[in-house]
Carbohydrate ABC transporter membrane protein 2 (CUT1 family) (Deinococcus yavapaiensis KR-236), 278 residues
Amino acid sequence: MRPPRSLGELLRQGVLLILGLVSLFPIYFAVVNSFKNPVQYAQNLLNVPPSLHPENYLVAWRAVASPMVNSLVVTFTSVLFTLLLAVLSAYAFALMRFVGRRVLFALVFALLLIPDFLTLIPLYIQIKSLDLPNNYLSIILPTIAAGQAFAILVLKTAFENLPKEILEAARIDGASHAQILARVVVPMSVPVLISVAIIRLIPVWNEFILPSLVLDEAHRTLPVALVYFQGGGNSNPSTPNYGALMASYVLSAVPLVVLFAFLMRSYIEGLTSGAVKA
């Protein structure tokens, strides 16, 4: 028979329940109001509308479809190449011995101590001086570079914690560094790789300032497009169509929700393995 719960445990669970409901409230607010017309939105912000207006999603989809594709291209390309380059660097720092290894890693670690906003203006000037076109490359290349320090630090820690016996057995069998990396290190580090990918993916997906400065209208990403979107039709900044706006916010969150639903187990496994402390 299950023992009765103590008062302290009930209070703790009650607090967790309240915090959970508070964290879910923005989702409820966006979903409920995405089905309202302007009159229903003005009358009550919190109720479920008596008549739904799903046409808001059609209006929102027309505005976010192309920017969503742009964001998917920018985000997944950036994260993929960030991981690819970081895996190579982390392997060298963790499992190879060469002159200057500690100094180089200290320089990489020092990059984490520089706030992003301090590098924004120099980065913008550098992008313009390289004469990059106002398309995906002008945001993908800086994003890959910006993600290297964190990814290398986490992956180096993960690679150092791999069982030395397995790595030594691979060396005795004659495996090269490339073979050890591809057939031993990477397969054993999949949860950490997924965790690093998701941690990098979220800020890249939500990045606004740099894309708004360097991308032209045809390559505009989702956060930039959402700022310009006022709800379609006759709406304007003074009288936006909040129903369509909320629908666009819901649609913009769908890719991350779906991705996280499929990768949640590996993400948590990577976080709890001890390699990722973020």
